[in-house]
Amino acid sequence: MPKTYKNPRYPYRRSADQGAGAGAAHHPVVIVGAGLVGLAAAVDLAQQGIATVVLDDDDTVSFGSRAICFAKRSLEILDRLGLGAQIQTKGVTWNKGKVFWRHSLIYDFDLLPEGGHRWPAFINLQQYYAEEWLVERAMATGLVDLRWKNRVVAVDQDAADPALEIDTPDGPYNLTCDYLLAADGARSTVRRALGLDFTGQVFRDRFLICDVVMKADFPSERWFWFDPPFHPGQSALLHRQPDNVWRIDLQLGWDADPEEEKRPERVIPRLKAMLGDDVDFEIDWVSVYTFQCRRLERFRHGRIFFIGDSAHQVSPFGARGGNGGLQDGDNLCWKLAAVLKGEAPERLLDSYDAERIPAADENILNSTRSTDFITPKTAISQLFRDATLELAAEHPFARPLVNSGRLSRPAILEGSPLLTASEGRQPPGLPVGAPCADAPLIRGNEKAWLLQLLAGGFVGLHYQDGDDAAAGSSSESDRLAEAWPQLRVLAIRAPGAAVAGSEAAWVDSEGLFAERYGARPGAFYLVRPDQHLAGRWSALRADSVGKAMAKSLSLA
């Protein structure tokens, strides 16, 4: 098999905590697992001034491309963590897809038909690239102690602090910590050590996943087939990746032998049937997986938190696994930093379960429905599926019923205890609890994207058109700044509006902020550090915003 990527090998280094006769060293935060989710969490905390120790039993990044579809929300998170330029340069951008049934294209779709966004619906990028760049970013912060070949063998949550026993090439040692983040994947050692198990469903089907190196003129789109002639009675998926690598998924059925199906003499004929005998290709990586839609009952256990695949598992169709894991860390890390800095009580951390369990359930529900549609289990289900596909070929109303994998969407935090309901009647626009929508802004000759300006702490967005920049509004702004110095306020003005101090205000150059947020003159929006909208008001009132800040930090 060719290798388009050479895994870096990171050296094991003996840490100061392994000194002879030393007791258990203590750290504020320990993260188990230096994969995509664990590394992103470490960088996120470092950017907020929180040091971490990251333990991993291996000495490299992922083998094989694994998660490749980074959704728009994940791209926004990774951009905030400093990876935006690398992802844009290396990744394969796509917004469109096609759905086939048997011999025919039945319809195509566009996941982001409108402009005015920095990021596309998806960028395809092999997971190992993202992990390697996160390792580099983590080391550059100076606050991440990455310990390779450090295998966690035991975890004690009954002690005053979470306690870990760790094995290394130099022998065992022990650590304790204030908080432990388990990002050690589907086979989580931490989860097993605590005796925790998943609830949910394992589907009786198997899929071949294969990375193929070839030069092909297929467009950068998602192509999905139901019952194709090259793989009758099953499904198939095609995605483009960097380096002339193409991801191919082929349904195999439950009776398929996983080890047998990974052999080249089994894989190559399947690929030739799909691609044709005249296409030259080489296999880069191959695996067989089973659909699973499961999660832990709770993600927080005392001062131990489960993030990513250690907390929940979904089928790959829909790209909800890695993207969901990145949102887990995005949700947890700002809260953990606030608690460690003494800015919020520990009860703030209870909101991790309150916000991320419903998000995981939404992913599991969508993933389960996709699996049921892709792999009908009864004759009636098959009849319904095929009738839907037949209708979709001719009638647009049927196309939303076709489920080839409901693609990852960010969670809206409905019902969160940290949110403040809108006061009075609000115009249509971004709802409280939703992640903030991007919009292009301009100030003089300087251009920016709104989400880039929201990075780092709580931010208030004050929309002005000139009439609302009166003394009353200025007075309320001063009161708010005095009461909440950690809240940074950005003034955004309508195009052409002349307001006091307008040279400091960003201009809604294309009117997309007003359109997407339902902004009217004087409107004020409170944005959390994870860029979810915490509250919105028709006018700036320092007392109301202050109460929302207190609620967002569980101070009230």
Note down, in words, how this protein is organized.
The chain has 14 helices and 26 strands. Helix 1 runs parallel beside helix 4 (127-141). The longest helix is centred in the middle third of the chain and has 24 residues, at 351-374. The chain is α/β, with parallel strands linked by helices and 556 residues long. The protein has helices at residues 36-47, 72-80, 84-90, 127-141, 189-193, 258-261, 264-275, 321-340, 351-374, 379-392, 450-453, 471-483, 512-517, 542-552; strands spanning 25-32, 52-56, 69-71, 92-94, 96-101, 104-110, 122-124, 144-148, 151-156, 163-167, 173-182, 199-213, 222-226, 235-241, 245-251, 282-295, 300-301, 304-306, 312-313, 440-443, 446-449, 458-464, 487-493, 506-507, 524-527, 533-537. It has a domain at 440-552: Glutaredoxin, CATH 3.40.30. Strands 1, 2, 8, 9, 10, 11, 17 and 18 form an 8-stranded mixed β-sheet that branches. The chain has an 8-stranded mixed β-sheet with strand order 6-5-13-14-15-12-16-19. The chain has a 5-stranded mixed β-sheet with strand order 24-23-22-25-26, with helices on one face.
Low-confidence stretches: none
> Which radius of gyration do the C-alpha atoms yield?
25 Å
- Label the CATH architecture of the domain at 440-552: 3-Layer(aba) Sandwich
SS elements, strand count:
26
- Shape by Cα distribution: globular
**What is the residue-averaged pLDDT?**
92
Q: What's the helical proportion of residues?
A: 25-40%
- N→C terminal distance: 59 Å
CATH topology of the domain at 440-552: Glutaredoxin
Approximate strand percentage: 25-35%
Task: Outline the biggest β-sheet.
Answer: 8 strands, mixed
The top level CATH class name of the domain at 440-552:
Alpha Beta
> Which structural class matches the secondary elements?
alpha/beta
Can you count the helices? Answer: 14
